[in-house]
Specification:
By secondary structure, the chain is of the alpha+beta class. It contains six helices and seven strands; from the N terminus they run E-E-E-H-H-E-E-E-H-E-H-H-H. Helix 1 packs parallel to helix 3 (about 105-115).
Length: about 180
């Protein structure tokens, strides 16, 4: 089962200054943070801000090619989370039928924004991210949550992720913070 999401914004991870793409569902019950590269963050921020570039950037080029070929982007889906890596699929409609193309979520979302395609996240991906309530209950019970913080890349003993602090950080974000794309 998939949940439709919107791009809430891009922020910088306060621990390492890596861009984090924030997806939220319509009711804002679920937040999905996806760590992305600076180039991908710039491509997404450019579209969110509706910044006109003098020449087509990579995702604009892809949109233009698809348009000229008569191919429609029906939707994108964030389908999995394995080994700290998110997976996505771009669903295309061609005159010959439907195609599903494997993609990085950042590229799929950059394209989706340019063609106004809906963005969906698989429920099991959201479940793997856990919720602040689950983490708090697990902490009180003295055990680890069944939803481990697998979405952080490059975890080491020196930068171990504190899931409760991150949840607190996400919940405390002001919508104004999402307008800041300084990278």
């Amino acid at each position: 089962m998939f949940i439709e999401m919107k791009v809430a914004g891009i922020i910088l991870d306060p621990s390492n200054n890596v861009p984090v793409l924030i997806l939220k569902d319509r009711d804002e019950r679920h937040t999905v943070p996806i760590w992305i590269g600076i180039v991908e963050a710039s491509a997404i921020a450019t579209e969110l801000e509706k910044t006109e570039m003098p020449r087509p950037m990579t995702h604009d080029l892809l949109r233009n090619i698809l348009r000229e070929l008569g191919v429609a982007v029906e939707r994108i889906e964030v389908t999995d989370l394995r080994d700290n890596t998110f997976f996505a699929a771009i669903h295309l409609r061609t005159t010959g039928g439907a195609l599903v193309i494997d993609s990085r979520p950042s590229d799929a979302i950059a394209l989706a924004l340019r063609v106004s395609a809906p963005i969906f996240v698989e429920e099991r991906v959201i479940a793997r991210l856990g919720s602040p309530e689950e983490d708090e209950e697990a902490s009180k019970a003295g055990k680890e949550s069944r939803s481990s913080p697998v979405f952080i890349s490059n975890l080491t003993p020196e930068n171990k992720f504190d899931k409760a602090k991150w949840a607190e950080f996400l919940e405390g974000l002001d919508p104004e913070d999402f307008g800041k794309y300084k990278m």
